[in-house]
Amino acid sequence: xSKIEVTLQKKLIRNLASKHGGFLAGSQVGKxxxxxxxxxxxxxxxxxxxxxxxxxxxxFVPWSRAVDMIKFTKKRILQEHKKRALPGIPLLSCRxxxxxxxxxxxxxxxxxNIDNVPNPSEIFSEIECAAREEILVMGGSLSxxxxxxxxxxxxxxxxxxxxxxxxxxxxLSFLLIQIIFLPLRMDWLELDRN
Length: 194
Fold this sequence. Notes:
Layout (H helix, E strand, L loop, with lengths): L2 H17 L7 H10 L3 H10 L2 E11 H21 L7 E9 L3 E11 L6 H18 L11 H4 L3 H4 L2 H19 L14
Antiparallel strand pairs: 1-3, 2-3
């Protein structure tokens, strides 16, 4: 937008944030977060050497369900952690990363102590799955932009009809067989090969 439009939007956002106890952090924080993506693997290795396992997961949720979805998802993670008598208290946080007219993208961050925990990856995954169940129950989506993949495929029957799943399977099968593995048999696309 124009300079005047951007100035007005910043003022409106600043007033809204201030009204609800928030504040503007500036673009440098976002840039620092982006730059951190290059260090994540090293931080993960360092954290694991100190028995600290962490992951993030995201969802989209309508505005009307956002506060409750966040509250109940955090509560569910704490319950699952306690139920397993795991050491310490898990570190939980979340942030809203994208705003839309219909709702928001919420990132959750879940960290736990894995010192003397047998099968820590399996237990961590179970807790993350419980959190995903809670997100779905509270009106959140399976994913905002990370996609379904193998990690979340188990949830597709609870959010999609059997008919839709069959259509998707047939479409994927066709794509894999006809296009990806047999690329020479693409004459029907009438591609200009020049």
